[in-house]
Amino acid sequence: MKIFYKPAYTYFFVDILLLVMSFYVVLDWFPLTTNTPFDKYSLPSLYYVLFWIFFSYIFGRYKLLKVQKYFNSTLRLLNISLIIFIFFKLIISLYFDRYSDYVLFTITVGAFSLNYLALSLYFSYRYAIEYNEFTIKPVGIRTNATVKPSVPLDKESYLQLCSTIRFHSGNSILKLLQDNVDLNSGNTLVFASTDSRFLKYQPQYQFSTIIQLEKLNNIQGINKMLSIANEKLPDDGIFICCFESKSTNKKRFLKRYKKGLNYILYSFTYFFQRVLPKIILTHKLYYTITKGANRILSKSEVLGRLYCSGYKVIRDKKVGQLTYIIAQRVKQPESLQKRTYGPLIRLRRYGKDGKSFDVYKMRTMHPYSEYLQGYIYDRNNLKDGGKLYGDIRVTTLGRFMRKYWLDELPMIFNLLKGELKLVGVRPLSAHYFSLYSKEFQKKRVKFKPGLMPPFYADMPHTLEEIEASELRYLKACETNGTFNTDLRYFFLILKNILLKKVRSS
């Protein structure tokens, strides 16, 4: 362990502040035998703080929090608290019995509790906006990634394979697979395991089609399994999987119990199976208990995971309670594979001079929805106002938040950081930015984007009208100056919102 390092000064000063708070609370609020606790314990408190800082530094507590893990940070804090308590307990017992063990204990517990709370809040916030990443490293460089020749199955082996599929998934699934892939080919792998190691030890480029019969709801490392399959498949290889969607799960659950009771039970089940896996403090506990089985997955999340893992969805079909997806391998998986989703997110957007930056927003979409913008656009195109038709990515709560701009409140942080101004063109994603003409893209990046776009002043409908609206605004900025233009647009937008009841869609 590296002993000497440059401490994170913010963390260092916060730590001292929390120690001071602990001393103040105990000495001022708690019942003690002395009438002058601050006079009596001022010098011991100073030594306590100095020793706390010394041991904290030695144990690496003051390293940058962004490179630390939640569990390790908490363990270091616990170790420091125990060491400090035992050390001063010995000192008091041997030399200074006039000081109280009770004060030492309560101050140590207080210091630990305040620091633990601060760490939990920090990591909860960090994991709400960041990715808990792990990278699946490809097995070498993909050269000559074409399927290896193989011998077709003999009749007995083919009948045995069909019998296995029929037994596990039913006749309808067997027919679906027979209609879409060649099960008789020796280049088709069919398996029904929740353990990704089964795929890991399969030969590379041996199978042009990999079929996972076990539903994704029961697989803990979904992205890991998808990424390993991606490595094993040749270029343009086919991967088939299935899952039970959130809406199907809800309907099935509600039918099982009496009306009234069913919604109460479903609320608890939803919280346990959908919310707990995504909270840092309960994430590991959830998977320890369930082993990842029976998770609730939305269609958006499953499709997004596939696109994130390097696939393109060719077809999806619902058969009974399950939805089957036929996807094609098109590229390497994204480097960030495992993500923890919280209520606050960061989205990459284009800013002034074409520089990208992170926009803070409240989550309104299902997990992994950011990978589906092109997928939704290709199938549904845009509706009035530049939004996507049939956007399955948006949650019910998300629609309400978007209607009243609640999801955009965190963008005030971007305003304070100077990345946005109050009025300006909307900061766009790479996909939306690509829909604009090249000439307009060059003009657009000359100006800083804003919180309140000219869209709400003109209320355009089509993409062409939105582009024309933004162009009028940008030309006005060039002619009349940015400040005067922003001021005029600010009152136009305010008028439409307050008087005409304009809302986001």
Description:
The chain has 505 residues and is of the alpha/beta class. The protein folds into three domains: 9-129, no CATH class; 155-245 and 297-329, Vaccinia Virus protein VP39 (Rossmann fold, 3-Layer(aba) Sandwich), CATH 3.40.50; 344-498, no CATH class. The chain contains 20 helices and nine strands. The chain has helices at 9-29, 37-58, 70-94, 101-129, 155-169, 171-180, 197-200, 222-232, 246-256, 261-275, 280-290, 299-308, 373-380, 396-403, 412-417, 430-434, 438-444, 455-458, 463-480, 482-498; strands at 188-191, 209-212, 238-243, 311-319, 322-329, 344-350, 356-362, 421-423, 450-452. The radius of gyration is 29 Å and the shape is globular. The two termini are 54 Å apart. Residues 131-135 have low confidence and may be disordered.
Order of helices and strands: HHHHHHEHEHEHHHHEEEEHHHEHHEHHH
| Rg over CA atoms | 29 Å
The chain-level mean pLDDT equals 86
First-residue to last-residue Cα separation: 54 Å
